[in-house]
Design goal:
By secondary structure, this protein is of the alpha+beta class. It folds into two domains: 27-82; 85-170, PH-domain like (Roll), CATH 2.30.29. It is 44% helix and 22% strand. It has four helices and seven strands, in the order βααββββαββα. The strands form two sheets. The protein has a four-stranded antiparallel β-sheet with strand order 1-2-3-4, with no helix packed on it. It has a three-stranded antiparallel β-sheet with strand order 5-6-7. A hairpin with a 7-residue loop joins strand 6 and strand 7. Helix 1 (27-53) packs antiparallel against helix 2 (59-82). The radius of gyration is 22 Å and the shape is elongated. The two termini are 28 Å apart. Residues 93-160 form the YdbS-like PH domain. It holds the Pfam family bPH_2. The chain crosses the membrane at residues 31-53, 59-77.
């Protein structure tokens, strides 16, 4: 038996950018802002409350508030510029998801690596009627994929499609 491992030229590789990617629901951005707002209200309140409870030099809460303001500005930029980059797509053998502005991530997961699929909805997501699709892979937990900000119909269709593809591949 002869073993062959032929070279593949770059121009012969398939272009996965040719797939049509879909944006998550626009109302998901509001949900992100609510979550971030609640966290930052708490974070901004801590140094102010600490200043009145325990006498500390005035510069300490000011420095903490300045740092928090900088972090808030960075997060706001990430949300506003990164939201249009939260895209997902379905192909014949895999699912694609991309997100992020400062730290852009593009994940392609083949259906034959997916072991379990679930749809989740948290309390705030329920208010906005949004769902998350979570794909558990055969690799480590870092290989799992979560697509947030889907409407119910899309989440259910994606789950059905992924389950159908994994069943076909397994047979």
């Amino acid at each position: 038996m002869n073993f062959e491992n032929l070279e593949v030229h770059l121009d012969e590789l398939p272009d996965f950018k040719s797939v049509e990617l879909n944006l998550v629901q626009k109302r998901y951005k509001r949900l992100i802002w609510i979550n971030e707002g609640l966290v930052f209200i708490l974070l901004f309140a801590l140094p102010i409350v600490a200043f009145f409870i325990e006498p500390v030099p005035l510069w300490i809460p000011i420095v903490v508030l300045c740092i928090l303001s900088l972090v808030l500005a960075i997060r706001a930029t990430e949300i506003e510029k990164g939201f249009p980059l939260r895209l997902f797509g379905i192909r014949q053998y895999d699912i694609i998801y991309q997100s992020g502005f400062f730290y852009f991530t593009e994940t392609v997961i083949p259906y034959n690596r997916i072991q379990h699929v679930e749809i989740k909805q948290g309390p705030l997501s329920r208010f906005y009627n949004l769902y998350s699709l979570r794909l558990y892979t055969a690799g480590a937990s870092s290989g799992d994929l979560i697509i947030d900000g889907l409407d119910k119909e899309t989440a259910q269709k994606l789950k059905a499609k992924v389950l159908a593809k994994t069943t076909i591949i397994d047979e």
